[in-house]
Design a protein that fits this description.
By secondary structure, this protein is an alpha+beta fold. It folds into three domains: 21-175, Sandwich (Jelly Rolls); 191-437, Rhopdopsin 7-helix transmembrane proteins (Up-down Bundle); 445-487, no CATH class. It contains 13 helices and 14 strands. The chain has helices at 3-19, 82-90, 94-105, 189-213, 220-224, 227-249, 254-280, 291-313, 319-358, 367-398, 406-428, 434-437, 481-487, and strands at residues 25-26, 30-35, 40-49, 55-63, 74-80, 112-115, 117-121, 126-134, 142-149, 163-175, 361-362, 441-442, 449-453, 465-469. Strands 1, 2, 4, 7, 8 and 10 form a six-stranded antiparallel sheet that branches. Strand 7 and strand 8 (126-134) form a beta hairpin. Helix 6 packs antiparallel against helix 7, helix 7 runs antiparallel to helix 8 (291-313) and helix 9 (319-358) runs antiparallel to helix 10. The longest helix has 40 residues, at 319-358. The chain is rod-shaped, with a radius of gyration of 37 Å.
């Protein structure tokens, strides 16, 4: 198999995995076996689901008609916690052992088990069904499997050793109170995303109003800062639509979920790259990006985006690679912030010495104030980068342990991200920068005059002399505002 074939096969597997997302109303592929067969376990629903009070599960099978003189199989729906499912799957003879439990100890011996009963059989089909209502809320999260055990033989069947599989049409439904197809831990997600959408709408409106008010001071960095928040707002709307659809229909809109993931990945990568560009000094200390950094930043963007995609679409094992990418990106941002702070510190020292030596007086804002404001920008930006990196790394690492608490994991991601956007907006918001662009220096008034002392012989111009004359008495003048400023220490 060539390299190209393997690449296309791997991509096809990833796409199939993405498109095979399980809804809360699903139609898993089920085969019902008749006769003498080895016990089997079929996956019905792998995504953990928790039931609140009056939650309901239902599985129905529409199969070919019953075969005469063949033992009817014993079929069970298993609702297993993650640990119980691992115990069943890790046994040496898991399915046979499970069937032994069922036949000897009853339906509650292994996991939460519900018998799937043959409701009726006609010449056209046989109909199987099980339903269970949770009268009390449970804190457990279940995965669902169908266990098939060979039926007991009465000894009169001539086909008792026949193993005949039949494909069935299935319908599996998970439901909580109020016709709600969300798991108990997913219930608060709709309220969380509605609040977040409202907050982001307000923040974007404030940002746009600020942009309109001071649009003449907008630069490339300010325009770039708008891209990630817009992506974030779109992603929140798409996610809200996805969850609303799941709640009312139980069906996950795969293309819409796919689009939401792409927007989320792009937004997160744009956020970190914007922080890098701001730390680099672009549009704050210099109008252009340094040549080597122009090549480094796009490479880091692609690497970071790829690592986040692999975590969600391939496997959680890529989480370590994603965290390393984040750490390296923020390391460069912090290093560039520190370099810019050192450069500004040196400029402050030189400017202070120059002002003291030349006794320069400024009318409103001095050069020192301008440099101090830029220094304050990078001090705050470095603090935001450092704190957000630590929080993001901790949340990304802990998210694998919060798979059964969707709303907690969502808040753990969204609140720090909202705070970092708010801080970046406060740092780089537009203001009236005119006083910083036009710094006026007060011209000192001289109390002396230059006197020409000509030589008697005009044919000797080299002997003409210029002397500096100072008044013997201080002239009486009106004291002006500039004079008052000159008197200040």
């Amino acid at each position: 198999m060539g390299i190209s074939t393997r690449v296309h096969l791997h991509l096809a597997i990833i796409i199939i995995g993405i498109m095979a997302l399980e809804g809360r109303v699903s139609h898993p592929n089920v085969s019902l076996r008749w006769g003498d067969f080895d016990p089997s376990l079929t996956v019905i629903h792998r995504n953990p689901f928790s039931f609140g009070k009056d939650g309901t599960l239902e599985l129905s099978l529409s199969c070919p008609p019953k075969i005469n003189d063949v033992a009817i199989p014993m079929v069970w729906l298993l609702a297993c916690t993650t640990l119980e499912a691992k115990d069943v799957m890790s046994s040496n003879e898991p399915y046979s052992q499970a069937c032994d439990h069922k036949q000897s100890n009853g339906p509650r011996a292994l996991c939460n088990s519900f018998p799937i009963n043959l409701m009726y059989s006609s010449t056209n089909e046989s109909y199987w069904r099980t339903q269970y209502n949770f009268e009390e809320s449970t804190n457990k999260f279940f995965e669902f499997y169908m266990l098939q055990c060979p039926g007991t033989n009465d000894g009169n069947s001539s086909n008792k050793f026949v193993d005949v599989p039949f494909n069935c049409k299935s319908n599996f439904t998970l439901l909580n109170f109020g016709n709600n197809h969300l798991s108990k831990d997913e219930g608060p997600l709709l309220y969380i995303y509605k609040v977040l959408t409202g907050v982001w709408c307000i923040l974007l409106l404030v940002w746009i109003c600020n942009w309109i008010q001071h649009r003449q001071y907008s630069n490339g960095l300010h325009k770039l800062l708008c891209i990630a928040p817009v992506f974030k707002f779109v992603q929140l709307i798409l996610t809200l639509v996805v969850w609303e659809r799941v709640r009312y229909t139980g069906v996950e809109d795969v293309p819409l979920q796919y689009l939401s993931d792409v927007v989320e990945f792009s937004e997160r990568a744009m956020l970190f790259m914007t922080m890098m560009l701001a730390s680099e000094g672009w549009c704050v200390l210099r109008p252009h990006i340094k040549n080597i950094r122009c090549a480094l930043i796009p490479v880091l963007f692609v690497v970071f985006l790829g690592s986040v995609i692999c975590v969600v679409w391939v496997h959680n094992y890529f989480m370590a690679f994603a965290v390393c990418s984040i750490v390296f990106v923020i390391y460069r941002a912090l290093k560039w912030c520190s370099c810019n702070l050192d450069s500004l510190h040196r400029q402050l020292i030189m400017t202070t010495q120059f002002i003291m030596q030349k006794e320069v007086k400024f009318k409103d804002i001095s050069l020192l104030t301008q440099l101090m404001q830029k220094r304050l920008i990078y001090l705050r930006l470095r603090l935001v980068c450092a704190v957000f990196t630590m929080v993001f790394a901790v949340v990304a690492t802990m998210s694998t342990f919060l798979a059964e608490f969707s709303w907690v994991r969502t808040l753990a991601y969204e609140i720090p991200e909202l705070m970092v956007y708010f801080c970046l907006g406060m740092i780089f918001r537009l203001r009236d920068f005119a006083p910083y662009e036009n710094i006026e220096v007060i011209t000192p008034k001289e109390r002396s005059v230059i006197i020409l002392l000509p030589h008697p012989d005009v044919r000797w111009p080299m002997r003409q002399k210029l002397v500096l004359g100072s008044p013997m008495e201080k002239p009486v003048d009106e004291v002006t505002e500039e004079d008052e400023l000159l008197k200040e220490p």
